[in-house]
Structures are given as C-alpha cells and as structure tokens.
Amino acid sequence: MSLLDRRSRRTTAIALVLLAAACAKKDEAPADAPPARDPNSPLFTVNTGLSTPESVLWDATRSVWYISNINGNAPEKDNNGYIVRVGANGEAKDSVPFIKGGAGDITLHAPKGMALQGDTLWVADIDALRGFNVTTGQPVASVSLEKLGATFLNDVAIGPDGLVYITDSGISFDAQGNVTHPGKSRMFAVNGRAAVEAVVFPKESAANGIGWSAARAGWVMVGFNTQTVFEWKPDTKEATTIGTGPGGGDGLLVLADGRVVYSSWADSSLNVFADGKTTTLRKGLPQPADLGFDPARNVVAVPLFGANRVEFWPIDTPAPAPAP
How far apart, in Å, are the Cα atoms of 26 and each of 16, 19, 34, 36, 37? Predict the structure, then answer.
C-alpha cells in the first residue's frame, strides 16, 4: 500500500470519528436545559391545607393566589369556612388560614367566588357578600341579600361600571344531598352596600360562572344545570343564548383575546368558547370549580372540589398576527 493510500485511509477514519462525535453531541441536551414538561401533568399543585376548595383568585399586586374553602356543606351556615393564600408557584404563605370563619369577629360560612376591588376582597357566602381587607384579612363589609331571597350566591366579578356582580344559583340540597331549586337563577349588582337584581336567567339554569367580555360589551355566563352559554348586556332585560357546551358549568374567565374559558362538572373538563363553539381543552379534572387566572403567565388555577387540591395548568394563546 502506498503512502498516499495510507494517508487517505487515516484521513477518512479521522473524519468519521469527528462526524460521529458531532452527531452524539448534537443529540445531547445542553447541560443547563430544563427537562421537557409532561403536557399531561399540571405545572404545579396545591394539595395541603384545603377542604372543599371552591374558588381561586390571582392577586398580581401581591403575587399570591387566594383559595376559598367551604370546609363542609355548601349551603350550611356553620361559620367554619376559610381562605388561604399561596405564592405564585403554590408555596404556602401562612401557617394558619388568612381568613377563617369564627376567628375574632369574622363570619364566613361557605365561601365561594371572590373578586378584588381596590383593597377589598369580596367573597360570596350563601346569602351575603363579605368584604375583607386584602392586607390584614379583617372584615370591612357585609352585604346581606337574604331579603332579596338569595339562596346560593356563587361567582363574583367586578364590572366595568365599578359595581360588584354576583350570581345566585338558586339551588339548595335536601336531607339526602339531592339538589333542589327553591330560588331564582339570577345575577345581582351591588353598589356600595345596596344590592339589586340585575337579570334573571331561566330558572333551572343555576347561574354560576360569570365574566365581563369587552369584545362583546356584555357578561358571559354558564350555569350548573344547563348546557347553554348565556350573554347579558346591561342595557337589556333578558339574557340571550350564544352557544352550548357539555353542561355542569362552573368557573368562567374571559381571556384578553375574547375567548371564554370555563370548567364543567358534566365531563370533568376545561373548555374554551369562541366563535359560538365550545372546544374541550382538557379532561380528567373531577368537579372543577371556580377558576383563577394569571394573565402574565397564562396560568389557569382549577380547584378540584371533592379532591381537596388545586391544579395549575398553562393556557395557550394564539400567536400575534403578522404585521401587514
């Protein structure tokens, strides 16, 4: 074999070794790269210190999540409901509940939906709207809706007019735990310390989750006993039907792009409503109640009512349209 042939073979061998090494290095993940996230697992979970969690609310100013806990039967006035705070990624903030029924002069039976207005945390509590100082947790207001016949106050939201809106599912439970419907399905508006009936929905719909849609200039609502997605504009007397879904509607939020996300007990799902149609985002969420949402991170909090935990999931947002 000539010297030229030997050099040629050695050069080829070296090239093959270098190519194999380069391919192996290409297949290796960078040492500092985060592990790939399992799309079927939540970003994080809170599963301690909860008892029948019903609602979650994100406070961007203080970087905390508030979680309301019924801690018993939803329609029972037992003054043992409570609210806990957790950090942005679910870490515990308090050794005892932030707000607890029966502690001092606090009354809180079965807290459900919540909303923030300035320094006040508003909470639905069977037939009353409770207000607490968001820094101290001390009570600052209590608006009774008992004389208006409220039976099951549920979701709470702040309207663009500055009023506090709250749904009344109108339901109750008999001695065997069966759902009855003695009251109206409706929405109240609270101005200061006075409440008025804003709109009445079909009786058996059991009004639940609400959210203001700037794109629609109206409220969107889902009910616990209906498959209908409703819309109500403040200058009208009645709600209209804008779509349908699986039923068992509970928590609802409106994204910045106008899409509506809501939870369903009927098929343990999280859904998105857009262009008159409901699409399932995720299933396998048993008894998903009132949703919380962090828009900066596109994270939705899903309280699982009977499982005593809250799961936090990402919500994909559409890519912005290219500039013309």
Answer: 15, 10, 16, 17, 21
- 10 Å Cβ neighbour count for 201? 25
Contact 299, 305 (CB under 8 A): no
Per-residue pLDDT of the chain (324 residues; tens, 9 = 90+): 553 455 455 555 444 444 455 555 445 545 566 567 788 899 999 999 999 999 999 999 999 999 999 999 999 999 999 999 999 999 999 999 999 999 999 999 999 999 999 999 999 999 999 999 999 999 999 999 999 999 999 999 999 999 999 999 999 877 777 888 899 999 999 999 999 999 999 989 999 999 999 999 999 999 999 999 999 999 999 999 999 999 999 999 999 999 999 999 999 999 999 999 999 999 999 999 999 999 999 999 999 999 999 999 999 865 444 444
| DSSP alpha helix (H) spans, the chain | 3-27
Distance CA 298, CA 66 (A): 17
- What is the Cα–Cα distance from 289 to 263, expressed in whole angstroms? 7
- For 156, residues 6+ apart whose C-beta sits below 8 A from its C-beta are 112, 113, 114, 115, 122, 123, 124, 129, 164, 165, 166
Tokens of 125: 């509590």
**At residue 11, what are phi and psi to the nearest 5 degrees?**
-65, -40
Q: Is 311 exposed, middle or buried (0-12, 13-18, 19+ CB in 10 A)?
A: buried
Residue type, 301: A
Identity of residue 162: G
Q: How far is it, in rounded angstroms, from Cα 262 to Cα 302?
A: 10
61's tokens: 């100013």
Residues 6 or more apart in contact with residue 277 via CB below 8 angstroms: 243
C-alpha separations of 76 from 126, 152, 216 in Å: 8, 10, 37
CA distances to 18, 19, 86, 324 from 25, in Å = 10, 10, 41, 41
Report the candidate in 198, 170, 173, 195 with the shortest Cα–Cα distance to residue 185.
170
